[in-house]
Amino acid sequence: MEEKDGVIGALLDRRAAEEGLRRFGAEVDFRWETGSTNDDLKAAGKRRAFGHPVLLSVARQSAARGTRGRQWRRLGDALLFSLGLALPQFGHRAPGLISIAAGVAVVRVLRAAGFDAALKWPNDIWVSGGKAGGILSEIVRDAEGRGSVVVGVGLNVTLPADHAAVTTSGWRMSALAVGEKSPFENDPARRTAMLTDMAAAMLTAFRRAEDEGVETVLQDFPDADAFAGRSVFWQDAGSGMLAEGVDRGVDADGRLRVETEEGELLLGGGTSLVNAAGGWM
C-alpha cells in the first residue's frame, strides 16, 4: 500500500491511529486488500498468542465472512477492520459476550458521531433501522494453548439510494450514508478517527469487563439494544415455526432473554432474529 507522510491510500492515517491507540500498546497495520482481516489475524494468533493488541484494516476484502460462514456483502464504501488480542478471562467463561461488548462499544462511537445506531442481538450493527454491518468474534489458540480472540467489524459507509438489498433474515441493508456521499470522502483524518475510536472503545469495554465483571456488559446492552422491550421473532429449532417473545436483555453467557407466554426463554448465539414481515429465508 502506498504511504506518504503516514497517510495510506488517502484513506487512513496510520500514525494518527498509532497515537490514538498508544495507551493500549496496540500495533496498527493498514493494507489495500486481503482475503479476510479475521483470517489474517487468526493465522497470527495460531502462530503465537497476541502479547499486545493488533489492529488490521483494509480497503477491500476478497473473502469476507459473517456469522456461520456467510459471505459478507459489500455494496459500497465500507469500513473494514479486525482487532486481535489476548483472550480476556471473561471470554473463556462467556465467549458470547465478546461480540456483544464490542457491538455496544461500536454503537456508542457511532452515536457520538451523530448516527442513529443500535445493536441487533447478537452481533448486527443497526443504523437508521437497517443492518449496516456486523461483528464476527473468533477464538484461536497457539501451539502452547494460549488463547487469542479476533474481533472483526464490517460497516457499510455508503449504499446507493435505489438499492434493494436485504439480509437472509429479511432485514433491509443500511449504511452510514444511503444515496449520499461518504462522510469520509477526501477526509482520511475523520475516517481514521472513527476507526481508532471504535478500536479504543472495544479495548476499553474488554478491560472494563475484566476489571469490574461481565455485569458491565449486561448493564450496557439495553441502551444499545435495537429491540429492547419489543417483540422479536425467530425460527424455533424444534418445530421450524416462527416464534415470538419480548426482548428482555442478555444473560451472563450472552444469550438473549425473551419473555414468552410460556415463560422466559434463552436464545443462543446460533439463533437469528428474523423480520417476520420482510420475507426472511
TrEMBL record:
One MF annotation (Gene Ontology) recorded for this entry: biotin--[biotin carboxyl-carrier protein] ligase activity
Domain of life, per lineage: Bacteria
InterPro entries: aa-tRNA-synth_II/BPL/LPL (IPR045864), Biotin_CoA_COase_ligase (IPR004408), BPL_LPL_catalytic (IPR004143)
Record bears the keyword Ligase: yes
Residue span(s) of domain BPL/LPL catalytic: 23-214
Gene Ontology cellular-component annotations: cytoplasm
Keyword annotations: Ligase
Pfam family, one: BPL_LplA_LipB
NCBIfam families named among the record's database cross-references: birA_ligase
Protein name per the record: Biotin--[acetyl-CoA-carboxylase] ligase
Organism: Sutterella parvirubra YIT 11816
